[in-house]
């Protein structure tokens, strides 16, 4: 199997479920066989944030990847826009898929990493590993980069692609030469389908969640993640001050969307962590 499959070859191999979530539905895709791993995407994303990682993980694990409510193929979240409500809905869907309630690993990217924290906090006895892919491990909410261009008014596909390539260069990548056509296409599609407002959740972020989570914690960040503040090395220290038993991995020459820009490195880190 090509462990860095692209969207066109990976998507048809998924087993897809539209799971009732209250009066709405949440879409989950599943690959592989083995110990279960849930991957949670970032804001204005979908399962495709993990498109360059799923095949490598599915060689050894059953990989569950939901479209979070209001993103991708999932309906909007029913009830309040809080992390606790979102975590409850995700656990409910996962229980439908795995009613035996196995021990799992949780990996979250950016916004999804906070969702992963809340899921782990809700079921300390079920989550064995918590893998957080983001640039900021302090209590401060990182500011978005300046210079982002508006795109919703654009009808011309080429012009839209140029604007979104520019935005990816500012917010998601370090090396602009790694922004391939697939990354641009996936980002355009994710932006077009996003109906959720991730900022509505920020006031509900639990305080000191990492101190209370029983799972082994791993922090993974790109060396040039634009959301680190004031700098990424300090963010690694911030994580270790909160959780001295955590592992922090700095991925060289990568930005925020680390697992797409540097998939070989991130996949190795993930697989080694999951093997522990």
Written overview of the protein:
This protein has 276 residues and is of the alpha/beta class. It is built from ten helices and eight strands. Helices cover 34% and strands 19% of the residues. The model has no long low-confidence stretch (mean pLDDT 94). The protein is globular. Strands 1-2-4-3-5-6-7-8 form an eight-stranded mixed sheet, with helices on both faces. The chain starts with 6 loop residues before the first helix and ends with a helix. The chain has one domain: Alpha/Beta hydrolase fold, catalytic domain (Rossmann fold, 3-Layer(aba) Sandwich). Helix 3 (83-97) crosses helix 4. It has helices at 7-10, 54-58, 83-97, 111-122, 157-171, 181-193, 209-212, 232-242, 258-261, 263-274; strands at 15-21, 24-31, 35-40, 61-66, 104-109, 127-133, 216-222, 247-251.
Short description:
The chain has 276 residues and is α/β, with parallel strands linked by helices. 34% of the residues lie in helices and 19% in strands. It has a single domain (7-274), classed as Rossmann fold, CATH 3.40.50.
Label this structure with key terms.
single chain, alpha/beta, 10 helices, 8 strands
Detail the topology: elements first, then pairings.
Elements: H1 7-10, E1 15-21, E2 24-31, E3 35-40, H2 54-58, E4 61-66, H3 83-97, E5 104-109, H4 111-122, E6 127-133, H5 157-171, H6 181-193, H7 209-212, E7 216-222, H8 232-242, E8 247-251, H9 258-261, H10 263-274
Parallel strand pairs: 3-4, 3-5, 5-6, 6-7, 7-8
Antiparallel strand pairs: 1-2, 2-4
Helix pairs in contact: 3-4, 5-6
């Amino acid at each position: 199997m090509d462990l860095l499959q692209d969207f066109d070859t990976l998507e048809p191999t998924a087993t897809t479920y539209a799971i009732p979530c209250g009066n709405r539905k949440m879409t989950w895709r599943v690959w592989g066989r083995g110990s279960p791993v849930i991957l949670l995407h970032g804001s204005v994303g979908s399962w495709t944030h993990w498109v360059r990682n799923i095949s490598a993980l599915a060689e050894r694990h059953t990989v569950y990847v939901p479209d979070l409510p209001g993103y991708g193929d999932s309906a909007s979240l029913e009830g309040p826009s809080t992390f606790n409500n979102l975590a409850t809905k995700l656990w409910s869907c996962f229980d439908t898929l795995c009613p035996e309630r196995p021990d799992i690993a949780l990996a979250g990217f950016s916004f999804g990493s906070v969702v992963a924290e809340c899921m782990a906090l809700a079921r300390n006895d079920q989550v064995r590993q918590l893998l957080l892919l983001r640039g900021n491990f302090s209590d401060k909410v990182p500011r978005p980069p300046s210079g982002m261009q508006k795109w919703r008014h654009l009808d011309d596909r080429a012009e839209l692609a140029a604007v979104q390539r520019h935005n990816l260069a500012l917010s998601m990548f370090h090396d602009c030469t790694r922004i391939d056509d697939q990354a641009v296409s996936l980002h355009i599609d994710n932006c077009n389908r996003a109906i959720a407002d991730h900022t509505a959740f920020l006031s509900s972020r639990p305080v000191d969640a990492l101190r209370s989570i029983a799972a082994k914690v791993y922090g993974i960040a790109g060396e040039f993640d634009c959301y680190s503040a004031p700098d990424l090395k300090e963010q690694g220290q911030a994580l270790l001050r909160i959780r001295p038993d955590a592992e922090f991995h700095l991925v060289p020459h990568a930005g925020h969307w680390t697992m797409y820009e540097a998939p070989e490195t991130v996949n190795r880190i993930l697989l080694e962590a999951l093997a522990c």
